[in-house]
Write a structure and sequence with these properties.
Number of helices: 14
Order of helices and strands: HHHHHEEEHEHEEEEEHHHHHHH
Distance between the termini: 169 Å
Number of domains: 3
Largest sheet: 5 strands, parallel
CATH architecture of the largest domain: 3-Layer(aba) Sandwich
Number of strands: 9
Structural class: alpha/beta
CATH superfamily of the largest domain: HAD superfamily/HAD-like
């Protein structure tokens, strides 16, 4: 009896629990259905978005992990197809053009090409010769920008009676002038003491070439102010005329169309004359303070130009320190002067018979040769400067007379430009009028 009661009570206890579990499991099932509804696919699928013109990334569809993932292929438009086609044609055309150019550069030498190239590689269509010709022509495209614009930077020298014995190449920056920039005054350029006398005196012995280390647009005006009528400086060269090698602009003296053995360069930067260091007289950069370093070089340069030397290199190499060349040369002159005076004194003592007869010796016999050269150079310099002053006045009058005598674009279009013969005749007439006007102003000045 007791066992029956215990069984019945156990059932009564289990039945509510089973009902409770069923009641709790029902909301869970409902919640899962709602979640499935939320995860349903949208009406706007990828195909519709792609047709509407929107960018859609291809995403793999959610499949069973055991199944293979399917990726969506990218759809090309007609514009994309055209772009690919044009790019392919562009690549083909570029490759064909490069190949044709390379093949053309392997051809035999032309008649107008360098004789030096022809001496290095002969004509012929073997692979080795074709490769060498291609290499030379290919490298020449880069050397074109490293070489000066002309093979000869200066015109041929004048004939012998008018030709100077030596050529003097002078730097501009920090040798003849010095430029500084300040916040108060901006750019200011100072001229070194003695520059005018240095240029004017040595112009009677040397063909002076001004070789600036800056570009023409920066240095041309300064060079014009140093010598407005080109009486002292024969030619002006600039940075465009340098040779570019290993990141440096070099002043190559071999391209001046002059004998290199008769060329002297004075510069403040050793990189500027690194190709011909034997021809250089180095100087320290001028900082703008007063000095006489240029004037101290005149005796040596004058001596060198009057000795009719064929090669200046051995003479320059005889100095131990070229930065102190003027001081060392003065020491040599002092020793030569003492030796000359001693020899001259012995000669006078030996000529006692001429003195007894009353025959006077030459007045210049006892003069030191360099002193005689200097006296003659000073006389020539004074005469030359007088001529320069007269030419300056003539040039001023000529500039005033020819100020408005220019041709306009209308004259070129209408054909009103005179022939070269007519222009020459007109220039001769104008020069005659200028000379007459100059003489008239000169007479008026003398009367006053």
């Amino acid at each position: 009896m007791l066992s029956v009661i215990r069984a019945s009570t156990r059932r009564s206890i289990l039945l509510p629990l089973s009902k409770r579990t069923l009641s709790y499991s029902k909301p869970l099932l409902q919640g899962k259905k709602k979640k499935d509804v939320k995860q349903s696919k949208s009406i706007l699928n990828d195909d519709l978005l792609f047709k509407a013109g929107m960018d859609v990334d291809a995403k793999p569809e959610e499949t069973h992990p055991l199944h293979e993932k399917k990726t969506k292929k990218y759809r090309k438009t007609t514009t994309d197809i055209k772009r690919e086609r044009y790019s392919n044609w562009f690549y083909i055309f570029s490759f064909s053009a490069l190949s044709g150019t390379a093949l053309y550069m392997t051809r035999d030498w032309d008649s107008n090409e360098s004789e030096e190239w022809k001496a290095q590689v002969a004509d012929g269509y073997t692979p080795e010769l074709m490769y060498k010709r291609f290499k030379i022509r290919f490298n020449s495209m880069f050397t074109f920008f490293q070489e000066p614009p002309f093979p000869d930077l200066l015109p041929p020298p004048p004939p012998e009676p008018y030709q100077r014995p030596l050529t003097l190449v002078l730097s501009l920056e920090d040798l003849l002038v010095h430029s500084e920039w300040t916040q108060k005054n901006g750019w200011r350029t100072a001229k070194r003491p003695g520059v005018d006398y240095f240029l004017g005196y040595l112009s009677q012995y040397y063909e002076i070439v001004l070789f600036s280390s800056n570009y023409m647009m920066y240095s041309e005006k300064i060079a014009e102010k140093l010598d407005p009528i080109h009486a002292f400086i024969s030619y002006n060269l600039f940075k465009e005329h340098c040779v570019y090698k290993k990141g440096k602009h070099i002043k190559d003296l071999s391209k001046l169309n002059r004998d290199v053995n008769k060329v002297i360069i004075i510069d403040t930067d050793k990189n500027n004359y690194k190709l011909q260091p034997e021809n250089a007289i180095p100087m320290k950069p001028w900082s703008g303070t007063a000095d006489d370093e240029l004037i101290k070089l005149i005796p040596f340069l004058e001596y060198l130009a009057t000795q009719q030397v064929n090669n200046v290199k051995p003479i320059l190499n005889s100095f131990h320190d070229r930065y102190k060349l003027s001081d060392e040369f003065n020491e040599r002159v002092v020793n030569l002067r003492k030796k000359f005076q001693e020899e001259n004194k012995t000669k006078k003592n030996n000529n006692w018979a001429l003195k007894f007869l009353g025959v006077s010796s030459n007045s210049n016999a006892g003069k030191f040769p360099l002193d005689m050269i200097r006296e003659e150079g000073e006389k020539n310099y004074v005469r030359f400067m007088k001529i320069i002053e007269e030419e300056k006045e003539k040039i001023r009058i000529q500039q005033e007379q020819m100020k408005n005598q220019t041709f306009t674009l209308k004259d070129y279009v209408e054909g009103n430009i005179p022939t070269p013969e007519e222009q020459m005749q007109k220039q001769l007439e104008q020069q005659k009028e200028i000379d007459e006007l100059y003489e008239k102003q000169k007479r008026e000045g003398q009367e006053k």
